[in-house]
Design brief:
Its main location: cytoplasm. By secondary structure, this protein is α+β, with helices and mostly antiparallel strands. It has helices at 15-18, 24-33, 35-44, 66-81, 206-217, 235-245, 266-279, 310-321, and strands spanning 54-57, 63-65, 86-89, 96-97, 104-112, 123-131, 146-152, 156-161, 167-172, 177-182, 193-195, 228-230, 248-251, 264-265, 283-285, 302-303, 305-308. The radius of gyration is 20 Å and the shape is globular.
Length: 326
């Protein structure tokens, strides 16, 4: 590894020294330990075959790539060994039973942002942990007791919360383990960087179109300051960046057929994000209520999602609530 002039020995506690409990802590640790093989396969690109090869279609109608399915099966094996009762995955239509006597259920997106596999853009995975219950995964986000994500970019990072704040670790290849990078992440309440897909603006509700017009007017408009805009096309990449540097993200509902309820999955994408963001002092909403209060009526329900800096999310919600003419 290249050594920079100010480099020293790695710092930060090893993750194995932090996640020492059983139950959700042990499951979170097992998920963390399962990430290096995924990162290594991503890093190998097309050397051994094409990870972007289309091998199926998931329940939401998205084309499944070879890496999507490979990551799914890899994580199912890990969660079975971790004693999880059952799993809901983006890559399977039905709930997957693992250990009938297990005390915990896991919802996961094994590869988030898979449209960018093979081009070097950020990818990752998302998960949440719920206590076993007859309702399974058809519960509000208030049932979530732990959540986390992995981010695969120029570094491999792992973020999680057990309800005691949000924490981030980075992969130490020399130690063969994650080390703590940030503990008790706190989101700044104001945002200077906003992430959204600008190509969809014309389909948005009038209130949102007014918000983005004022945003782009910058210091010459009613907001009185300039903003930066980024769009990584991977929710987990946006989450990681916002937890580290602040900002806000939105993928709202719009007028297009199939987008009336947004496009992000409620149970295994939006609920974990909401849990992590709120544990860091931010907000996560569907535009009308906090994500944690939203109840899924089907396993793969979609939802609008707005998350990040508290003040900016509240500003967006204020624009959405403004009455429209006509």
């Amino acid at each position: 590894m290249l050594k920079l002039p100010n480099d020293g020995p790695p710092v930060g506690r090893l993750l194995s020294q932090v996640l020492t409990g059983d139950g959700p802590a042990a499951i979170v640790h097992a998920i963390a330990r399962a990430q290096p093989p995924l990162m290594e396969r991503l890093g190998a690109g097309r050397l051994h075959g094409d990870p972007t090869e289309i091998v199926g279609v998931n329940d939401s109608g998205d084309r499944q790539k070879a890496l999507d399915v490979g990551a799914h099966h890899h994580m199912i094996a890990v969660l079975r060994d971790a004693g999880v009762r059952q799993v809901l995955s983006e890559e399977a239509e039905a709930v997957i039973p693992l250990n009938p006597d297990g005390e915990w259920d896991v919802a996961m997106d094994p590869i988030d942002g898979s449209g960018s596999i093979g081009i070097g853009a950020p990818l990752g995975m998302l998960f949440s942990i719920l206590p076993a219950a007859p309702e399974g995964f058809l519960r509000t986000g208030e049932a979530v007791v732990a959540a986390g994500y992995a981010s695969f970019g120029h570094s491999m990072d792992f973020g999680w919360s057990l309800g005691d704040g949000t924490h981030i670790a980075g992969w130490d290849a020399e130690a063969g383990e994650f080390r703590m990078v940030r503990e008790n992440v706190t989101l700044k309440p104001t945002a200077s960087t906003i992430a959204y897909n600008a190509s969809n603006e014309r389909h948005w509700a009038p209130g949102l179109q007014a918000w983005v017009a004022d945003l782009r007017a910058g210091k010459d408009g009613p907001r009185g300051r300039d903003f930066n805009m980024r769009w990584l096309a991977a929710a987990v990449g946006e989450l990681h960046r916002i937890l580290l540097n602040g900002g806000a993200f939105l993928y709202p509902a719009d007028r297009r057929p199939g987008y009336e309820n947004g496009r992000l999955r409620l149970v295994y994408e939006s609920m974990p994000i909401a849990f992590l963001v709120e544990q860091a002092g931010g907000l996560a909403s569907d535009g009308t209520q906090p994500i944690r209060y939203r109840k899924p009526f089907a396993l793969h329900d979609m939802t609008p999602l707005i998350f990040g800096a508290k003040d900016e999310v509240e500003t967006i919600l204020g624009y959405l609530a403004e009455p429209t003419e006509g």
